[in-house]
């Protein structure tokens, strides 16, 4: 360029390439691309983590055998998968799990068929969903490394009960209220994190309605808790037109909505559900109930000594630490109640309400800590929020926090995953029955659907009980169509030695002498001529809903 000449439009006098009117050496990085890359990495981490934990939970679930409760749920899901959407003919127990666990089971059976593996996969997926919901709620409002540390604490607390071999079924066994926690956690997450919008309250109403169809705990625990906390926040704000008021009204509206939906379902021939038989206990029984309640809480958090535990005493100590962390989180919310967030208040009141309802009713027994299953994930979230601050300052503190949280999360899972798979004692019986072309028979409750599912429906054992000389259909988790002589023909009865619920003597009183008797391992098979279903009566139905 000659002296005195102006550079042409678009020329680069510095000899550099230009982009957006700036020299390349002064070019700023594309923030949108950086943000997109971070989102992709975060999404990939979530996906890989979820798959990894599903595999671990599946391996742990295999250490617990599928009993007839879980097998009946699997058979219900199999009917759903084959178009029997309303489960016509089914008499289900006092919790249906119709809107969550049964669809998950149906999805698993679509992949694996009607076998034990499908039930184990569904249990692992259900517990994984609960874990993800708890992690999402614990990570809210935190930032940076604190999010990962809180994630580790939640996983650690939820892994603690898996270190007790006899308690694996609580989290990873048959559907037994643990999946109901997903309805609670999703509702609390929606209330706490989603900005008020036109769809927020209706969506919450639908979620709570679906939860109530699945499990009455949502009606008697979650709905009152949401209404109570929202009412408090409305009074504290001294304003009626607030988001909390709308949320409270949506929770209340879910109750008549569920009643209407259930009435429509019954009108079109849907399943019947046995009404819950829970009552207030006499006040004199409350001190004894308190002892049972404490024991149940310790079981939930794995804070009990157990034989053959993979980590031994260390596992019990770990469970106590997790329980103490949950108690610390509960105490923190109580002390800082006025400044606590919506989610923390909801979690706190849920724990108190669930424990109190267990304590003062007829529920407490040594064998049913699952009635308080929601206390475990709610306590895990509060523990994470109490132990890990919103942000962690300093590289050294960050590394220590992440290392401790990672070890605490992965070590118990690794220990629990080392437990051997549960034995399947029905295998010998199934093989013998298939060899002798016996495919439809009768058995006691715990030896009925469990063997049926293990056989992949190739052998079906239907549950009966005998009173005096009369054999009757078992009035719990059963399908009346199974006992219709026009549809099926039962030619044998299976009795297990040592099973007091159905003995050979009872079978002889009800059906007479068999044509032949066979002994296979721990089983006795009594084979008859003719259709035994013609001699099985249907007792009066219990109170249903």
List the helices and strands and how they pair.
Elements: E1 18-19, E2 22-23, H1 31-61, H2 68-81, E3 90-92, H3 101-112, H4 116-139, H5 145-159, H6 168-172, H7 180-193, H8 200-214, H9 217-237, H10 243-267, E4 272-273, H11 286-300, H12 313-335, H13 342-359, H14 375-387, H15 395-417, H16 426-435, E5 440-443, H17 449-454, E6 460-467, E7 470-473, E8 478-479, E9 492-496, H18 504-511, E10 516-520, E11 523-527, E12 536-537
Folded structure, characterized:
The chain is an alpha/beta fold and 545 residues long. The chain folds into two domains: 44-417, no CATH class; 426-537, no CATH class. The protein is built from 18 helices and twelve strands. The strands form four sheets. The protein has a four-stranded mixed beta sheet with strand order 5-6-7-12. Strands 4-3-8 form a three-stranded mixed beta sheet, with no helix packed on it. Helix 5 packs antiparallel against helix 14 (375-387). The longest helix has 31 residues, at 31-61. It is globular and about 80 Å long.
Descriptive keywords:
2 domains, four-stranded mixed β-sheet, globular, alpha/beta, 545 residues
Strand line-up across the major sheet: 5-6-7-12
DSSP, total strands: 12
Indicate the structural class.
alpha/beta
| Order of helical and strand elements | EEHHEHHHHHHHHEHHHHHHEHEEEEHEEE
Mean pLDDT: 89
Helical residue percent? 40-55%
Residue fraction in strands: 5-15%
Quaternary structure classification: single chain
Cα separation of the termini: 93 Å
Q: Please summarize the sheet with the most strands.
A: 4 strands, mixed
> What is the 3D form?
globular
Number of domains: 2
Q: Count of DSSP helices?
A: 18
Low-confidence stretches: 1-22
Q: Supply Rg.
A: 28 Å
């Amino acid at each position: 360029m000659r002296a005195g000449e102006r550079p042409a439009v678009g020329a680069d006098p510095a000899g550099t390439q230009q982009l957006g009117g700036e020299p390349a050496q002064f070019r700023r990085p594309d923030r949108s691309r950086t943000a997109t890359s971070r989102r992709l990495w975060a999404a990939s981490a979530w996906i890989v983590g979820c798959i990894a934990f599903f595999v671990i939970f599946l391996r742990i679930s295999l250490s617990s055998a599928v009993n007839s409760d879980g097998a009946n749920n699997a058979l219900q899901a199999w009917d759903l998968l084959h178009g029997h959407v309303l489960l016509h003919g089914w008499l289900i127990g006092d919790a249906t799990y119709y809107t969550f666990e049964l669809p998950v089971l149906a999805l698993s059976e679509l992949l694996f068929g009607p076998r034990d593996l499908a039930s184990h996969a569904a249990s692992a997926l259900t517990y994984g969903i609960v874990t993800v919901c708890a992690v999402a709620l614990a990570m809210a409002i935190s930032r940076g490394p604190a999010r990962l540390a809180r994630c580790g604490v939640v996983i650690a607390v939820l892994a603690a009960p898996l270190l007790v071999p006899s308690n694996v079924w609580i989290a990873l066994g048959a559907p037994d209220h643990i999946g109901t926690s997903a309805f609670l956690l999703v509702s609390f997450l929606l209330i706490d994190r989603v900005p008020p919008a036109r769809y927020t309250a209706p969506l919450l109403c639908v979620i709570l309605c679906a939860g109530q169809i699945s499990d009455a705990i949502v009606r008697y625990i979650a709905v009152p808790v949401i209404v109570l906390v929202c009412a408090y926040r409305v009074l504290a704000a001294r304003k009626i037109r607030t988001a909390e008021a709308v949320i409270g009204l949506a929770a209340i509206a879910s109750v008549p909505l569920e009643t209407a939906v259930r009435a429509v379902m019954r009108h079109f021939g849907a399943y019947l559900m046995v009404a819950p038989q829970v009552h207030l206990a006499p006040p004199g029984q409350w001190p004894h109930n308190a002892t049972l309640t404490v024991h149940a809480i310790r079981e939930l958090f794995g804070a009990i000594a157990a034989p053959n535990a993979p980590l031994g005493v260390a596992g019990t100590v770990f469970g106590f630490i997790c329980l103490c962390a949950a108690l610390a989180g509960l105490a923190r919310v109580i002390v800082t109640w006025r400044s606590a967030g919506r989610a923390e208040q909801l979690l706190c009141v849920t724990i108190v309400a669930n424990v109190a309802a267990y304590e003062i009713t007829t529920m407490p027994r040594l064998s049913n800590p699952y009635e308080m299953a929601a206390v475990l994930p709610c306590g895990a979230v509060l523990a994470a929020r109490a132990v890990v601050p919103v942000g962690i300052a300093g590289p050294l503190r960050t590394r220590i926090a992440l290392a401790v949280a990672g070890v605490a999360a992965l070590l118990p899972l690794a220990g629990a995953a080392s437990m051997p798979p549960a034995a399947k004692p029905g295998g010998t019986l199934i093989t013998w029955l298939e060899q002798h072309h016996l495919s439809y028979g009768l058995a006691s409750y715990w030896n009925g659907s469990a063997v049926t599912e293990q056989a992949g429906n190739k052998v079906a054992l239907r549950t009966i009980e005998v009173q005096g000389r009369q054999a009757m259909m078992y009035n719990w988790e059963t399908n009346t169509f199974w006992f219709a002589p026009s549809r099926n023909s039962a030619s044998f009865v299976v009795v297990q030695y040592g099973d007091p619920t159905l003995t050979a003597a009872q079978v002889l009183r009800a059906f007479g002498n068999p044509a032949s008797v066979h002994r296979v391992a721990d089983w006795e098979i009594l084979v008859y001529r003719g259709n035994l279903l013609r001699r099985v009566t249907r007792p009066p139905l219990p109170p249903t809903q």
